[in-house]
Amino acid sequence: MSVWAALFVLVVLIPVVSFLFIDQYKNTIRETKNYERGLKMVPMKIHLPPPSDDIEGGSRDERDVVDEALSQAQTMYNIIYSTATKGFKTKLYGQRHISFEIVASDGLIHYYAVVPAVITETVKQAIEAAYPAARLEEIEMKNIFSQQGGSHGVIGGEFTLKKDYIYPISTYEDSKRDASRALLDALSRASRGDGMAVQFMFRPASEDWTQKSIQKVDAMRKNKKTDGTVALDIMEALWKPPQERPKDKPEFKNLTSLEESEIEAIERKIRYPGYETLVRVAISSSTSSRSQALLQSVIAAFSMFDSPTYNGFKFNMTNNIDDLVTSYIFRFFPQNFKSNILNSVELSTMFHLPSRTSIPTEKVQRQRIKQVDGPTELMDEGLLLGVNEFRGVKKQIRLGENDRRRHVYIIGQTGMGKSKLLENLAYQDIMDGRGFAFIDPHGDSAEELIGMIPKERIDDVIYFNPSDIKNPIGFNMFEATTPEEMDFVISETNSMLKSLYDPGNTGIVGPRMENIVRNAAILLMSDPDGGTFMDIPKVLVDAEFAKSKIKYLKNQRAIDFWTKEWPASQRSNDAGEVVSWVVSKWAPFESGLINNILGQKTSGFNIREVMDGQKILIVNLSKGLMGEQAAKLLGMVFVMKFQAAAMSRADTPESERKDFCLYVDEFQNFATNSFESILSEARKYRLNLILANQFMTQLTDTIKSAITGNVPTKIVGRIGIDDAENLQRAFTPTFTAEDLTKLPNYNAVATILVGGIPSAPFTMALLPPIGRSNQQLRDALKRYSSSKYGRPKAIVEAELKERLRVKTALSASPPASGVSSEQGGQPASTINEQISALNSRPLENTAPQSRSIQPQTPKSSGAGNQSIDRPSFIGQNPALGGSQGPANVQSPQNNVIKSPPQSVDDSFLDGWLRKREELREQEARATTATKTSTPEVINRQTKSASPARSEPFRAQTPLTPKSNDNSGRFDVNSRDNSEEVIFKIR
């Protein structure tokens, strides 16, 4: 008997002991695996979709909106369920788990996904499928535990189900509301120094998790017990006599409504994928009482998931703080923890990405704009605009050369990076050897760019800075040779005045003023000696000055105006008021700063040559240095001149026209009809515009239409709601008006041309500055450009004073041929000799009070033909673009700017000018007395004659020092050694 008993014990004990041993071994290796898996999990921050990506509510019932929004999360959980694995390892180690977390730290609420490395891509796919605008970023998790409170301030625990997992909790399908709002409200109570975290850890449940629910439903329908029924039936059969045993119950029973509802709830739960779930809470604060208060708010929030009839959560406080912290950091999820199983609907109710209606606080960080993929077919070469990033993949966005000819429009509020974007684009043109002009109304970008010029392009640079009062660069907007050019200049002049004084077309600049300005401009430009914009007031107020130019008119309409209409109008009662009204419009420009620029008859450079020669023209129109009106006028003049130069390229085959880019920042300041014309017509002339401004409301309707219709490449930063509504048509349905108003700085929404085809809208990050400006190089190049293209202020002002003096002698009766009637009858040839002698006379310093006249570099009216030294600073410093030796610098003997400033007495200079004027008047009388008195311009080098109208009247050109002559003598007849011109009487 003892043998059999022993054998029985062995038979029973061996399996039990083996089972216990295997179970213990399994638990040990699972715990080890838990540590390993915790170390291999990848934390990713979920950047929440922007508000514009929320489901539109409109007039819909809020419950329907919530139902639709939370059903998105079900898609995510259904995809994640596909990560479930089978096999021996799965039975041994269990399924891999995922942790979705909501963390409050530093006063903000963040969403995270902590995922096993091997299934990272699957989880990303699941989240992005449910929330296409969400963006995941791998990061290092922040430490939520307060150093001030230490372990005493840490508290936490786990939520488990109150009843068997077969019973569901309350879901959004039941309540039609977003219960997670209460949880966010609880987390928002955390202030700086507090840390709160809720971990929703889950893994796919085994396939047999539904069997228990099915058995329960079957037992309820058949009126059977389910818990321990087999053991109870055996005991009952052994101890109760047959007569005391209950009679067989019917196979089915009539169910009450509550039982029917319970069965329906259980069956509804098992329709969806199930997940073993563990919810862990960790809270840290400076004090234990503070942590307790924060924990109670979280516990109260979880009561929103309780179903009064079925299931809910209870909180189990953790007493061992070290275990809590370790489990939180490593995301421990015991494999034998199988008592909490939730389906995808229940998980969606508890954790999903919130919408605007479910966020009770501004502490929840959301993306300002969603990321949208850029064009799939991109140019390998071209202008680099920025970088498109979509789901971790970055690609450069480039604009091809042909696409660039269709122009670029950049809009965005201040601070979004427009100016830096323009600088980056211009810097690329500098390094690629392309020509461009950069008009900057602020001056900062102009200062930056001038310091980025490499040594190879130093000779290409023209720096136009009106605030350089020592050497103003001439810029005559009335330089026109053909009737067509004159008409264009006159039309643009009136447009500029209207933009300055009557942008709203209220009639301030009306037909009468336009007519006066038109005829005054014709009168000035008809004179072979030329005229300037600044001469118009002189024409209107000085009858003798105007009369001296009428003889050059060829336009009969203008002749009638000045000989009939204008004299008649001066006899009216309001004649003085009309003239004063017109002349007053020039008052803001009569300061020496602008007058010395626009008042010069010959420009310091030629715009057409700048374009054809691929030069770099940087225009600093800082409104703070020169005033807003003056800056606007100069900017509009530049735009007008560029359009005229572009149209003049009609004489060149299109294939030979070189691309030239005009950058204009805050272009609304200079917007006239020229922009509309350039946008629609200048492409074939290879003038490419890149325009930037802050608001479309700053533009006229015609220019708005031109931009929307003729500029397919648009880069839009953060803008106002009015502009967003105007532009959203170009970006819908991908982006809404709200998207365009919430862009962060240095980010943009763009649509570009790719091979002539407009792309779909996409997001783009702007580049940081790619060029570095050198202060020393900047200063040296500014001096270099000023000396090369500018003229000394004293000479310019003396010329203006001389030119605008009233020439009463010109109105006298013509003398005999070749003779001056009132001055002794000197022949014209003798007068010419006296002028030449006067020109060669040295100017001596005879007075203690004198002014300094900087010697002027010889130059022509064009750009780039000057023979001038670079600053020695540039030639000697390789770091700033120069060479090691003097290879790039002319010898001292040929240095045309080496002479020191000449000091000239004011009274002597005025007397010298008056004497020269007297001799010229005598020459004029002798000339008018001669029937064949038409002047011809003779080139001394070629000895060939050309019509006088084709070149400015050189006898009255600005005084400049003769080349390589330190004596201080000035040559009236020459501004350029290469092309000296004089007048010769036929």
Walkthrough of the structure:
The strands form 6 sheets. An 11-stranded mixed beta sheet has the order 11-10-22-19-18-12-17-16-13-15-14, with helices on both faces. α6 packs antiparallel against α10, α7 (209-222) packs antiparallel against α9 and α15 (444-450) packs across α30 (775-789). Among the domains are: 1-39; 42-204 and 269-358, Vanillyl-alcohol Oxidase, Chain A, domain 3, CATH 3.40.462; 476-602; 791-858 and 896-984, no CATH class. The protein has 34 helices and 29 strands. Residues 806-906 and 930-986 have low confidence and may be disordered. The termini are far apart. The protein is of the alpha+beta class. The chain is 39% helix and 16% strand.
